[in-house]
Amino acid sequence: MIINKNKETERKCLIIYLLNPSVMLALINISCLMFLPEKTCASGWRMFSCSCYLLSEKTGSWDEGRSDCRDRGADLVVIDSSEEQDFLVSFTQKQTWIGLNDKEEEGRWKWVDGTPLTSLTFWSPRQPDNGGEDPQWGEEDCVHIRTDGNTLWNDRSCRNSFPWVCEKIP
Ligand SMILES: [Ca+2]
Ligand SMILES: [Ca+2]
Ligand SMILES: [Ca+2]
């Protein structure tokens, strides 16, 4: 009986352990290494989890960033996890475009891969504000990671000039 109870506890602990995000990420990384041994990132790109990332040297509008990424067989980064958000913050160290916008319909945020924004968001306080109706900011439909004291997201005019981050599955 006691042995069974211990076994039960052990099993519960194992499940909790496996559900831990950092353990899951480690498992994903291991499976990348095991099943995709030939998949590596091109020179200049950085690997994290199963993706390769490039921080642009140039700056430009959100659309210029996106078309540069697409020319490289990639697209602007889609943030799927808090680990990816943390990685990007340490990888970029400056304001950069990410692949999120509400160009099609105000307030309906969509990633460049077509997926709608879920509850996993990293908005700065009081953002998104679509420019807060202040004419100097204009309509704000594109998202960047900002650095003024924080690392969270802000919506900004798509015409603004920032570097960008491309993401590609090798
Ligand atoms: Ca991603
Ligand atoms: Ca907007
Ligand atoms: Ca804003």
Structure description:
It holds the Pfam family Lectin_C. One of its GO terms (molecular function) is carbohydrate binding. It comes from Oreochromis niloticus (Nile tilapia). The protein is α+β, with helices and mostly antiparallel strands and 170 residues long. The protein has two domains: 38 residues, no CATH class; 128 residues, Mannose-Binding Protein A, subunit A (Mannose-Binding Protein A, Chain A, Roll), CATH 3.10.100. The strands form two sheets. Strands 1-2-8-3 form a four-stranded antiparallel β-sheet, sandwiched between helices. The protein has a four-stranded antiparallel β-sheet with strand order 5-4-6-7, with helices on one face. The longest helix has 18 residues. Bound molecules: calcium ion (3 copies). The site of one calcium ion (CA) has 6 residues, from loops. One calcium ion (CA) binds next to loops.
